[in-house]
């Protein structure tokens, strides 16, 4: 973690998002109904989904933060990926409804002419969601929380959808009545695209995909190269487990070393790897004796 204050900021993300989304549901819902904007009403539904996603994210963070136990000796870190998938599957269903409703409004030729109060609701949504996005993505990146980053991109998708809604309202006021429901369709498409990308990413991490950072393995090899009495590196496996990294390292050592010597090599190897990793890391080291020709 880059700054100590990041941890305090990360703890506040959940409450900030809850308060922010409740405010937007009330304001966008009211202004959408009073102002007659189908796009803004769809955006209010999007905020309802965001509120649920925030609650699910908070639950996921609590689960993944549990200590290891006999039933789960590897910890609960992967709960965050499951939470992220639940969030995006729910949003996917919401997006399908928004697409359907917007398409039917255009097909049936409904005269949708929102008033300018609806535009102020969209502007308010853009500002608040952008602020929530910036806080969530920064804090989620610093503590390496997949569900918090997922929640951040939900806020950014709400920014984009609110921009589309604002354009739709202005277009409808200019006489292009199809533009407001078209904005609702744009909202649905934006949400679906983000859902597909993030579900794919969370699923791959559940399947123990190697960390995406290209320099992780090089950093590990460089750290091990500075540890004394290692005859070679047999293999290295790594995976992301929620906010942490987990390594399994197989090292070659001289075949005649003592048990205490081998344990010292393990301790130094673990310490060296953890020192070069920015994320919290768990390291398992196995030794394989080989004959070293001097």
General description of the model:
The protein is elongated, with a radius of gyration of 25 Å. The protein is built from 8 helices and 3 strands; from the N terminus they run H-H-H-H-H-H-H-E-E-H-E. It is 67% helix and 11% strand. The model has no long low-confidence stretch (mean pLDDT 79). The chain has helices at residues 5-35, 38-64, 79-107, 116-142, 146-173, 179-206, 216-225, 259-276, and strands at 232-241, 244-254, 280-290. Helix 1 packs antiparallel against helix 2, helix 2 (38-64) packs parallel to helix 6 (179-206) and helix 3 runs parallel beside helix 5. It has 2 domains: 5-206, Alpha-lytic protease prodomain-like, CATH 1.20.1510; 216-290, 2-Layer Sandwich (Alpha-Beta Plaits), CATH 3.30.70. It is mainly alpha-helical and 294 residues long. The protein has a 3-stranded mixed β-sheet with strand order 1-2-3, covered by helices on one side.
Summarize it.
By secondary structure, the protein is mostly helical.
